[in-house]
Write a structure and sequence with these properties.
Length: about 160
C-alpha cells in the first residue's frame, strides 16, 4: 500500500506555525506581531478552502480590517475573549461563539485581543480565484493572482 502524501489526522496545536507571520507588505506586516497561524488546511493538502488555528497574544490583532469580494470567511472562538470589529462597531466574543463574513458585502472585519490572555480561534475561508480584498482603514488593496496575494496602494501603485 502506498504511503499517503498527507497525514490522515493530526493534533492541531502540533502543526508547525506558518513561517512568515504576515503576507502584508510593510508597514502593515509588523502590525501583525503577536499573531501565530497554524495552517491546518495546508497540512492536509486542501486547495478549495483554508483552515487556520490562530493564536492572538494579548493586544494583538487578527488582520487589518478587511472585506473580500469572493471569499466567505468563518471564525470559531476556542479560547479567550476577543473583540470583533466590523462596520457595525465592536462586539465582544467568548469561547463557543462564531461569526461569518459573507463575500461581497464590503463589511470590513477583524478580531482584536484587548485582554491579557491569549485568544485561540479557528478561521476558515475559501480560496476563490480572482478574489480581492479591500481595507477601509488603510491605504491597501489586495488581489488574488494565481493563488498568491498581491498588494498595492488603493490607487494601484505597488509597495516597494
Amino acid at each position: 500500500m502506498p504511503t499517503p502524501l498527507y497525514p490522515l489526522s493530526v493534533v492541531a496545536a502540533d502543526v508547525p506555525a506558518r513561517n512568515k507571520p504576515s503576507v502584508y507588505p510593510e508597514p502593515f506586516a509588523s502590525r501583525m506581531a503577536g499573531r501565530i497561524k497554524h495552517t491546518l488546511g495546508d497540512i492536509f493538502g486542501l486547495t478549495n478552502f483554508g483552515v487556520n488555528l490562530t493564536h492572538l497574544a494579548p493586544h494583538a490583532v487578527s488582520a487589518l480590517r478587511h472585506a473580500h469580494t469572493k471569499q466567505d470567511e468563518f471564525i470559531y472562538i476556542v479560547q479567550g475573549h476577543p473583540t470583533q470589529h466590523t462596520d457595525e462597531g465592536y462586539t465582544p466574543l467568548s469561547p463557543g461563539m462564531c461569526a461569518g463574513f459573507k463575500a461581497g458585502t464590503g463589511n470590513g472585519h477583524r478580531l482584536i485581543n484587548e485582554t491579557n490572555e491569549t485568544v485561540i480561534y479557528l478561521e476558515v475561508g475559501d480560496r476563490s480565484a480572482g478574489d480581492e480584498g479591500s481595507y477601509p482603514d488603510d491605504d491597501l488593496k489586495a488581489s488574488m493572482v494565481q493563488g498568491q496575494w498581491h498588494f498595492t496602494h488603493k490607487d494601484g501603485t505597488p509597495y516597494s
